[in-house]
Amino acid sequence: MALNNRLHVFEILEKASKLKSRDERIEMLQQHKIMPLLDVLKGTFDNTIQWNLPDGTPPYTPNTEDAPSPSSLLKQHMNFKYFVKGLRESSSLPAVKRERMFIDLLESVSSQDASVVVSMINKKSPYKGITKKLVQDAFPDLIVE
Question: 51 forms bridges with which residues in the sheet?
């Protein structure tokens, strides 16, 4: 599953959520500190980030699990700026185009990463045990209060 010896965002979160202790979860997140992971965690738990997308799960076709994804969050996380309320990149787009871009992003990554992104825009933790407090302890400067 790993891309260029790096784990997908969902793999990092899934593995961290399965660890027994809080310290092990923090260590796992810190060991895999990559921008897509940080962007997902910030987008999920930072209340200053509001998504310029409808709530819920958009109508998209997830990639099949056995087929390789055309892209990954390692590349696609750069497009999150088009979906954040208040950012010029998002505000200048018509809603239909912004929503189409979001669906295209979801359809270009693995189904598990797409699920993580949908959780992010709905401000819900994608995995049990991955909490705002845990993220703040792992990355103290990530979330603005």
Answer: 84
